Amino acid sequence: MPRQITEMEIESAKMELPDVKTVRLKWPEGFDPDFKTGQFITVFWPDTPNYKRAYSLSSCALDRGFFEITIKRDGKMGTRMVDWAKAGDRLGVIPPVGKFLPVLEPDAHLLCIAGGSGVTPFRGFVREATRRKLSTRITILYSVRTTNDIIFNDEFRELAQQNPNFSFQVTCTRLSEQDPWTGRRGRIDAAWVKENIVDLPKTTFYACGPNALVDGTEHLVVSEMGLPKAQMKTEKWG
């Protein structure tokens, strides 16, 4: 049975970075879907209905009245969305589906590993946990090229101030030696992941972003550390 398609108006379009935009899609009257944080929607422009693209929600299930997706300028859809999408435009939307869901249990630890725009669904994870004042521990290990590529930097820092169980850590891979950044440099590696593990049996690993990062994380968790696949959730973005 085909999923219902709903046309939605873009309520706002905010540039997060020069090549990243957050689009807020306003729910039409009477639209009140049941969905979960971490799922994705599929969107298309009405003039090209056969060209669809799935995007993880960067909002959470507690955000009612709208969906937010955060898009990097990449490919036909990403380029058009970042360069041209504006308030008042309309998109076709297939409602949320997906299994990349946060385990928001009291004694759980979500160790979230992201590269580039792969950090966007984790914004929803942290938003929900913070608003619900949950004791769930969430750690984001985020790899970017330079400090100019950190998506939601200010918001994640603010959430870390509000939520003592949330930690946002960034590593930069392409900074010059002269750059004043005092944080971590280099790719996400096994040592960095392992030093952030508090209680291994209660840790669920999430990896989202480029295929190489996701595959490398899965190899570390399942093959090297010998953990069951049930403790690993992945979302590949090509």
Structure report:
By secondary structure, the chain is of the alpha/beta class. The chain has 2 domains: 6-97, Elongation Factor Tu (Ef-tu), domain 3; 109-236, Rossmann fold (3-Layer(aba) Sandwich). It is 22% helix and 33% strand. Helix 5 links the parallel strand 11 (203-209) and strand 12 (232-236).
Strand content: 25-35%
Tell me the helix content: 10-25%
Structural class: alpha/beta
Give me the number of helical elements: 5
Strand order of the largest sheet: 4-3-6-1-2-5
Radius of gyration: 18 Å
CATH topology descriptor of the largest domain? Rossmann fold
What number of structural domains do the residues give? 2
The major β-sheet equals:
6 strands, antiparallel
Question: What's this, in brief?
Answer:
It is built from five helices and twelve strands.
